[in-house]
């Protein structure tokens, strides 16, 4: 059966994250989005891990868990009725796995390195052992769900493998400038430089919102890694905006099978990743947010990397860093890898289809919940729905056309830079004007 996984996210205990990020809401929104296997996130946080322990029950010895109150359909129906969201009728309970993001800040070869890693644990007991060891070393795990550890990525990996060899580490959003293994302001030029003699344990890289697999394929040194995509959401509506689509045998949905699929690059099972259009990511191009300056790499080189407004170094984005490390021209595809599908979130499509309204406006949200309730999860609408059927069922005919254009890549994007998201235009300004509700005429 198809299992869509999103294993990098946050709880309400991480900085700048929504207070709505609770276990019951995560279960509910997994169903709404169609993400079947979701991270509990932030598992080093002492309060959050206690909540997880109290609310989750293991799915046999698979290494995955369920929110226990949501397993009873009657109890779940009551919770859904009391909430302000709609859940697809056919939705199954969301599976949870113990993964978390850790921030490593340390000096190496006279340079400060800041690297984020996603850590995957095979079960709750391993999480507790890892947390005990981090506490013994007196790291502050309380202040943030994504704590800062003053140790090297290499030393952490060695420590984790000593605690439990089934704990795995995946470098997070590898190209982003400030906190990533290849980041322009923070990182290294290769996996080996970062993890040293422990590099053999690294088997996957997370591409992040600002890069897609094709960009990564330009660096031949990365061919040996499988590329994964996760949403890194800080609020519920962003859940599943990037994800991994896999096939599992119904009776073998387990942590070990997930890791096997990744390590063996099993493309019979790992079908494709769900991607942002990379231009939409917050660090695609170079620039300065405060100076309102955005540049593509060629222009940045012309300006010697300096901002024409404030004369300070620009924040170098993902496109530039890929170009720096690339040894292949654009267009090369590594054989035998999962493919990728680029999506735009449904509320963004509805907003444009219905006359350029805000994503969170009443009209848009009303249409969104109507579609979720009558047609199924957001990802099943975006990935699987038949356009003609959608034409009949969606609250506005432009929505089906918007989804068709998204699938065909017929859209314009103003690239993101220096922390500013890119902007997607699926409809022209003229089309948006035309689809606005008409004002009643006096004549
Ligand atoms: Zn991060
Ligand atoms: Zn500037």
Short summary:
With about 450 residues, this protein is an alpha/beta fold.
What do you see in this structure?
The protein has 443 residues and is an alpha/beta fold. The chain folds into two domains: 2-280, TIM Barrel (Alpha-Beta Barrel); 345-410, no CATH class. The protein has 16 helices and 17 strands. The strands form four sheets. Strands 1, 2, 3, 4, 5, 6, 7, 8, 11, 12 and 15 form an eleven-stranded mixed sheet that branches. The chain is globular and about 65 Å long. The N and C termini lie far apart (59 Å). Bound molecules: zinc ion (2 copies).
Describe the SSE topology.
Elements: E1 2-6, H1 23-33, E2 37-39, H2 46-55, E3 56-58, E4 65-67, H3 73-82, E5 95-108, E6 111-121, H4 124-136, E7 148-149, H5 153-163, E8 168-171, H6 191-195, E9 204-206, H7 213-216, E10 226-228, E11 243-247, H8 255-263, E12 270-275, E13 286-288, E14 293-295, H9 297-302, H10 318-325, E15 339-342, H11 346-353, H12 362-375, H13 378-384, H14 387-393, H15 397-408, E16 412-414, E17 423-425, H16 429-435
Bound molecules: zinc ion (2 copies).
